[in-house]
Amino acid sequence: MAAGEGILLEYFDTKVSKSLTTFSEKPLGSLLRRISLTNGSLACMAVHRAMIALSALLRYGDCVQTQRLKLSAISALGASARNGVSPENAAQHVSAGLILCILEVYAHSDTSYQWTWYIMGVRDVVAAVSLDWFDSQEDLSDLSDWVYHHEVLSKFSLRHWAPEVAEKSQSTHMLDLPKRAWDVDPRLVPCNSMQQRNNALRTLADVVDMVVPPSDPRSSSPEYRDRLRWVRDHIEEHLGSDDPNLSDPAETMARLYRLATLVYLGRASGQAGPRVNAHARAGLRLLGRLTECTRPFALIIIGFEAETDEEQPKKWYLTLDWPA
């Protein structure tokens, strides 16, 4: 390993890894390092190269070194895939794919949709061995949670930004965006224990699947409106404690996500009102108590509800805690 790469690996361990967590705030840095060091296979090499490529991006920007490391990771991952995916190397393929997805989002999220292909690749790997298998492995359940988190957020992103990206893709003769649903394959359906650990995330996934814009004829049906009310009431019943002294970061993030989901549900369905405004204010108060927020969905949905001068700094300066 070159000296410069050693510095980047140290940067990953000390800085970047702190930002890689599951939805329940479990750190993933040490797990990813262990996965990359399992053996000397191409799959392990792909994880290692992807980690230092992400470090290079976050430390130096999208420079030649970043591109070289990224291409090296992709090459190793592709070579490993040609030899087949199995339980012995599935964790490496998933880890490398998700790290490359994050790298692509931060490097080219406004000009490229290539991150979606990494998500699709991860789905294929998970389907090859089943999500239940990942969750049954004592040291890989956190990895399966990470997969689920990315899947839900990709569903939200494609729902609201895919039309714009598709329009760009037509002008540049790119392929259409992948549209395969997560739940089509039974091997990809989260097991009960996984859904319980990620309950607030599952709620968001259900809302994204259900809600339609006010212009959609389905929005005027009594059944749909009744369903909206039931979902809203159900989320409100499970908001969790608003105790400012609550020290459990997972519970805090779950409450923040539920508040953001309620705001999103009201705004996206055209059913906003005093209750939505109250949830937005509660979310802003909760954001105000945090020193950092590494969850883009909650930050975007609640942050843009800021209206007063006191709230505006939170709207613009409370940012994702990526290392500088």
Strands, helices and their partners?
Layout: H1 3-14, H2 29-36, H3 42-60, H4 64-82, H5 90-108, H6 115-129, H7 131-136, H8 141-171, H9 192-197, H10 199-210, H11 222-237, H12 249-269, H13 274-289, H14 296-303, H15 312-317
Helix pairs in contact: 1-3, 2-3, 3-4, 3-5, 4-5, 5-6, 6-8, 8-10, 10-12, 11-12, 12-13, 12-14
Textual characterization of the structure:
Helix 11 packs antiparallel against helix 12 and helix 12 packs antiparallel against helix 13. This protein is mainly α. The protein has helices spanning 3-14, 29-36, 42-60, 64-82, 90-108, 115-129, 131-136, 141-171, 192-197, 199-210, 222-237, 249-269, 274-289, 296-303, 312-317. Mean pLDDT is 81; it is low at 165-181 and 313-324. The chain has 15 helices and no strands. One of its GO terms (cellular component) is nucleus. GO terms for molecular function: DNA-binding transcription factor activity; transcription cis-regulatory region binding. InterPro entries: Fun_TF. It is found in: Nucleus.
